[in-house]
Amino acid sequence: MRTTEQPIDSVLRPSDEVAEALAQGAPVVALESTIISHGLPQPRNLEVARELEGLVREAGAVPATIAVLDGVARIGLDKDGLERIATEPGLRKLGFRDLAVAAALGSSGATTVSATSFLAARAGIRVFATGGLGGVHREWTETQDESADLDTLSRTRITVVCAGVKSILDVPATLQRLETRGVGVAGFRTGEFPGFYLHTSGRPVDWRIETPEQAAEIMRAQDALDGPESALIVANPVPVDEQLDPALHDRVLAEALAQARQRGVTGQAITPFLLEYLVKGTDGASLEANLAAVRGNVRLAGRIAVAWSRGN
């Protein structure tokens, strides 16, 4: 039971541009900030952040990069805010569970998929672009390690455009968990679930769509059915000519998993360890494939947002 009421703008504050777009029913695309703060080296991280916002604008939508600054969830960052996320040392990585604590303590941090999804939906944004989702970790039966992304997406009405789940994870188990939790998955011009760095994971998807307009129609059907507030995943593969070499990916990932076991790396440390190992072991090729996937997802999310806004 709430004992006090806090004004919404004290914990969640859209930028003027985003607020105006939402009020007018214009297309808006949410972008996460963890890729800026934790996923790329400086100064390239800031360059990529600006590039991704530019791609949203080219598609005819308004970008809303999301982060928490001094306890306030910012829905759309200005120049100073974007630079702060890109350069501030020791910036936290915030999932959904961290948001209330960060708000109460006046902390700052970059938002993960779970936090970005929640905040975007809370602000009234329906489309979100990211690289890859978190999911069920390998050796789940021993570690019980599963990303909070899945739980949040099972109760958040948002469309997430992504290149599947990170390939370091247990992809079949993650797809099963998404099905169990009622999260819809549709492949964009593909019948196979993307493999993040790779064009395909080799796993089939039940539904395939060909156009952004079809994605928007699914979103409208979700609302018309008025079922549980679950997400829609639009799985958009990285192009074949921009993917990481599959043989290189498999070899380096096997080495990374073996090193993690030998060093006893578990819990929250396992994902950054494996991703960093892949970057080093592929001489940066995995990072370039990741960025190619993100760019494609941002472009498609912009088109879906435009299609969604036209019918509402």
TrEMBL record:
UniProt xrefs under Pfam families: Indigoidine_A
Residues where Mn(2+) binds: D145
Molecular functions per Gene Ontology: hydrolase activity, acting on glycosyl bonds
EC number: 4.2.1.70
Binding site for substrate: K93, V113, S147, A148, D149
Transmembrane segments: none
InterPro entries named in the record: Indigdn_synthA-like, PsuG
Reactions performed catalytically: D-ribose 5-phosphate + uracil = psi-UMP + H2O
Manner of cofactor binding, per the entry note: Binds 1 Mn(2+) ion per subunit.
Cofactor(s) in the UniProt record: Mn(2+)
Keywords from the named record: Glycosidase, Hydrolase, Lyase, Manganese, Metal-binding
Enzyme active site: E32 (proton donor), K166 (nucleophile)
This protein's record includes keyword Transferase: no
Protein role: Catalyzes the reversible cleavage of pseudouridine 5'-phosphate (PsiMP) to ribose 5-phosphate and uracil. Functions biologically in the cleavage direction, as part of a pseudouridine degradation pathway.
Subunit details: Homotrimer.
HAMAP family: PsiMP_glycosidase
Family: Belongs to the pseudouridine-5'-phosphate glycosidase family.
Name of the protein in question: Pseudouridine-5'-phosphate glycosidase
Species name: Streptosporangium jomthongense
